[in-house]
Specification:
There is one protein chain. With 448 residues, the protein is an all-alpha fold. It has a single domain, classed as Na+/H+ antiporter like fold (Up-down Bundle), CATH 1.20.1530.20. Helix content is 67%, strand content 0%. Helix 2 runs antiparallel to helix 16, helix 3 packs antiparallel against helix 7 and helix 13 packs antiparallel against helix 14. The two termini are 30 Å apart. It is found in: Cell membrane. Keywords: Antiport, Ion transport, Membrane, Transmembrane, Transmembrane helix, Transport.
Length: 448
């Protein structure tokens, strides 16, 4: 492909990303579905060899690109949430009850069940656990159509009334980081740090629990809160007018915040994904009604849009160039089992007895819409870099199949289901009296 043709394809694809959400509004077709299909068409065209879409050969590139997309999405998700989380308020923690249930019950159950399915299908413990952990978190990148639209700011700031969207959004913000301990467990088993040959390696598992499951989480959350508080103090309350960037609406602070929080946490050994989300939530809690939050959210949203565009096109190209050549019955069983049985069942169990106020239909929607996407690709790329013995073309085919199926399945159902049961307050009088919300542009890649 010549450089001129590359610009033409990129420009045409970007225009598609801009206009598709409106064009497809009344149809059960999502923008990610169309963009992946465009990528497939591009891949089938007479392009030259050498495109960096072969996963095992371009693992490091895939890891870093997907890493960037996820942290940008996590910053946007954290800024979008209106509901506060006050660390010292029991009432505030209870208001996040559905989120804690999805994180503490649904995700571990999903990992356990997928690991069991993988081992029954003939995988070793490390490979089965890695696949389960990589596919466990719901995706903050491709789930825009089932998440909150953006922050409510100005004089009409209100708590997000839609418990369904809030639960799916907050879960996506937190579970990307909380899947990491299980990814590390797979790496440690594969590299022999945790032995599986002579019974249970208690010392190895205790070390994993203390550092990977607890220590790195605490570091990530703590550093994220610290960075968020510091930047918020400077942006809103600095004694120097030149440093009060909120007054002049310098929204690139969002990029500075996510890069700083992520980089500092990774250097210190914590989980950077959790840190970015904690930083965004902490910054959002400062001057909560200020329009600056909406401006920062819009910047992250636009950057996420551009990055996601490229990834969806790359996925489509890779699909047409052999990414699923190693797909077999085990891949299909694991992928469909996760999307149609494991996630809905674990989510339903997690929300049993919940006092969130959601209807049975809304709880079912939370359980079902476990959208898989960019985060799964990142975890697989990262883990296979740390433990090359886990790197197989079959793993990539299985993850690609699961993501593609999720894009189609959830993309077709998201709009009609959310319109029927998830569009704001059930009480028309409440809806009519509610103050207007600031419109969000979240997701040119919004209809997944």
């Amino acid at each position: 492909m010549t450089a001129d043709l590359a610009y033409l394809v990129a420009g045409g694809s970007l225009l598609l990303a801009i206009v598709l959400p409106v064009l497809l509004d009344r149809w059960a077709i999502s923008a990610p579905m169309v963009l992946v299909a465009v990528g497939v068409v591009i891949g089938l065209s007479p392009l030259p060899d050498g495109l960096p879409v072969e996963p095992t050969e371009n693992r490091a590139l895939i890891e870093h690109v997907t890493e960037l997309v996820v942290i940008v999405a996590l910053m946007g998700v954290g800024l979008a949430l209106d509901r506060p989380l006050a660390m010292r308020s029991a009432r505030s923690w209870r208001s996040w009850g559905s989120t804690w249930r999805m994180l503490g019950i649904a995700m571990p159950l999903s990992i356990l069940m997928v690991t069991a399915i993988g081992m029954l299908a003939g995988l070793g413990l490390a490979a089965a656990l890695l696949l389960a952990a990589a596919l466990a978190p719901t995706d903050p990148v491709l789930a825009s159509d089932v998440q909150v639209a953006g922050p409510s700011t100005g004089s009409h700031e209100v708590d997000e009334p839609d418990e369904l969207r809030f639960t799916l959004t907050s879960e996506a913000g937190l579970n990307d980081g909380l899947a990491f301990p299980f990814v590390y467990a797979a790496v440690l088993i594969s590299t022999g740090v945790i032995s599986t040959s002579d019974g249970v390696d208690w010392s190895g598992w205790l070390g994993w629990l203390g550092w990977y499951a607890v220590g790195k989480v605490v570091l990530g959350v703590g550093i994220g809160i610290g960075v968020g508080r510091l930047l918020a103090r400077v942006a809103f309350r600095s004694a120097s007018r030149s440093l009060r960037v909120a007054e002049r609406g310098e929204s690139l602070t969002a990029i500075a915040a996510l890069v700083t929080a992520y980089g500092l946490t990774e250097v210190c050994g914590g989980y950077g994904f959790l840190s970015v989300f904690a930083c965004a939530m902490t910054f959002r809690s400062a001057e909560r009604a200020h329009d600056y939050h909406a401006a920062m959210h819009e910047v992250t949203e636009r950057l996420e849009r551009l990055l996601t565009l490229g990834l969806l096109l790359a996925l489509g190209i890779a699909l047409s160039r052999g990414l699923m050549d190693d797909l077999d019955w085990r891949s299909v069983v694991i992928g469909l089992g996760l999307l149609l049985v494991v996630r809905p069942l674990s989510g339903w169990i997690a929300l049993l007895g919940s006092r969130s106020g959601m209807s049975a239909a809304q709880r079912a929607a939370v359980a079902f819409f476990g959208i898989r996407g960019v985060g799964s690709v990142y975890y697989l790329a990262y883990a296979t870099g740390e433990a090359p013995g886990l790197a197989t073309d079959w793993m990539w085919s299985t993850v690609a199949f699961t993501i593609t199926t999720s894009v189609v399945l959830h993309g077709v159902l998201a709009t009609p289901v959310m319109r029927r049961i998830g569009e704001g307050p059930d009480d028309p009088a409440q809806e009519a009296s509610a103050p207007p919300r600031k419109a969000s542009t979240r997701g040119a890649i919004r209809r997944q």
